Amino acid sequence: MSSMFGKPRAGNASNDRNTQNHLPECNIALLGCRGAGKSALTVKFLTKRFISEYDPNLEDIYTSEEIVDQQPVLLRVMDTADQDGPVNCERYLHWASAFMVVYSIENKRSFDICHRYLEIISLHTKGVQQDHPVLLLGNKLDMERYRQVSKADGSSLATKYGYMFYEVSACLDFESVRQVFHDAVREVRRETERNLAVRPLFIAEEKPYLSLPIATAVSSKHGIPTFSTLSTVSYKEIPPVAQAKVITVKSSRAQSKRKAPTLTLLKGFKIF
Ligand SMILES: Nc1nc2c(ncn2[C@@H]2O[C@H](COP(=O)(O)OP(=O)(O)OP(=O)(O)O)[C@@H](O)[C@H]2O)c(=O)[nH]1
């Protein structure tokens, strides 16, 4: 992991686990048709590198410890591998706290398929009566001269659903890609705080309301939703960590991607 995804992290494995246990979490699912660039964006975000070939059939979840606006977060990224549009969506609909729906600006069909993803997410959100931030991403901005989807079309589709819209490129600058992932975290935080604000507090009869810290009252009585530990109480207990260190790779696709640089170099694939 450390050789490809970042510098080795100080501390041993059990310390890592302990730190992770205390971090607020954010689960981001990347959706979109084959070839839109989900894997390339994921790996760019995690490694700052563009790697041009991936196994399209493997799906996996990556975990990265990030600092967003001076606050740590355990970010999980699910790089999905739907074949040709949304199928068996339950696995990510119930898992994700935010969605990135990706199309390629040089492939109109990939944009059309995005409509279906946005529709499904929108229906799901209504069903669970909770908003999950959605970011519509037009990828491959570097392929401007082959563009088939205008920026206006992308933007108006996102606006129709009230979602955020970006155009990016997995093979151009890292900062723009990172910005998108961090904006997703910011939106999840906002959403969580909104939910906590409207949720009625349980007030134990024998304890005076004002003597309870709000965050404690909420989480102890109503369970901790994915992001509810974003209270200042939690943060102050967390030691500072270096920015954007990937600390865990969970399963097979991750392993295959981890090996990718060696394989791709041997096969002469482009690594920018
Ligand atoms: N020029 C350019 N090529 C890209 C970009 N992002 C991805 N690609 C290429 O597009 C192809 C598909 O990228 P992937 O990241 O595998 O796409 P995916 O959405 O994960 O597709 P599946 O793995 O099939 O689900 C690969 O050849 C990538 O190198 C980009 O921003 N610009």
For the structure shown, list the relevant keywords:
binds guanosine-5'-triphosphate; disordered N terminus; Ras-like protein family member 12; EC 3.6.5.2; seven-stranded mixed β-sheet; Rossmann fold; disordered C terminus; 272 residues
What fraction of the residues are assigned to beta strands by DSSP? 15-25%
Question: Which CATH first-tier class of the largest domain would you pick?
Answer: Alpha Beta
Query: Which class best fits the helix and strand makeup?
Result: alpha/beta
How far from one another are the termini?
19 Å
What would CATH call the homologous superfamily of the largest domain? P-loop containing nucleotide triphosphate hydrolases
Per the CATH scheme, the topology name of the largest domain is Rossmann fold
How would you write the strand order of the largest sheet? 6-5-4-1-3-2-7
Largest sheet: 7 strands, mixed
CATH architecture of the largest domain: 3-Layer(aba) Sandwich
Rounded radius of gyration (Å):
20 Å
Question: Given the C-alpha coordinates, what overall shape results?
Answer: globular
> Could you tell me which ligands this complex binds, including any ions or cofactors?
guanosine-5'-triphosphate
Please count the helical segments: 11
**Low-confidence residue ranges:** 1-15, 207-272
Number of domains: 2
Count the E strands: 7
Protein name: Ras-like protein family member 12
Catalytic activity: GTP + H2O = GDP + phosphate + H(+)
GO molecular function, one term: G protein activity
Pfam families: Ras (PF00071)
